[in-house]
From TrEMBL:
This is HTH marR-type domain-containing protein. PROSITE patterns: HTH_MARR_2 (PS50995). GO terms for molecular function: DNA-binding transcription factor activity. It comes from the Bacteria. SMART domains: HTH_MARR. PANTHER family: TRANSCRIPTIONAL REGULATOR, TRANSCRIPTIONAL REGULATOR, MARR FAMILY. Residues 1-146 form the HTH marR-type domain. InterPro entries: HTH_MarR-typ, MarR/SlyA-like, WH-like_DNA-bd_sf, WH_DNA-bd_sf. It comes from Dactylosporangium siamense. GO terms for biological process: response to stress. Gene3D superfamilies: Winged helix-like DNA-binding domain superfamily/Winged helix DNA-binding domain.
Length: 154
């Protein structure tokens, strides 16, 4: 019996099991989408670029907190993005030990390309659902996350 297709009866209909299986599926689809796009960028890169474009310049610490990415991972990912000239970092004049990060024009263009990748993944993941079911699914997930009891994870 393949482990990926079966679960014990007392497990298979539990929301925690279903959410973890769906997370694994969606993560795999996203990784495959980014891999097919090429360029070595992944979910963390996308999340940080999206945050910078939407919210504007921010400190590394604020980016980590806002996106749920661990501080050390933020530093590493921003270094990768900076080496590709997708973001710029400069010292915060009001706080000597803090860096302010901005998205570059090349970063904004890369983000648009990655948006298309992520849109394709969403379509593939949700393809069994009607448009109304998709809206309901997203609304229900958002409601479950809105109570804020669980901390964000990377």
């Amino acid at each position: 019996m393949p482990a990926s297709s079966r679960a014990p009866a007392r497990v298979k209909d539990r929301p925690t099991w279903l959410v973890s299986r769906l997370f694994a599926r969606s993560s795999g689809l996203l990784a495959d989408g980014f891999e097919a796009h090429g360029g070595g960028l992944r979910s963390y890169h996308y999340r940080l670029l999206a945050a910078l474009e939407e919210w504007g310049p921010a400190s590394q610490a604020d980016l980590g907190r806002a996106t749920g990415i661990d501080r050390s991972d933020v530093t590493a990912v921003l270094s990768e993005l900076e080496s590709r000239r997708l973001v710029g970092r400069s010292a915060d004049p009001g706080h000597g030990r803090r860096n302010i990060v901005t998205i570059t024009a090349a970063g904004a263009e890369q983000l648009r390309e990655l948006d298309a990748v992520v849109d394709g993944v969403q379509e593939r993941l949700l393809s069994p659902l009607t448009a109304a079911q998709r809206r309901q699914f997203v609304a229900l997930m958002s409601k479950l996350l809105a109570d804020g009891s669980a901390p964000p994870t990377g």
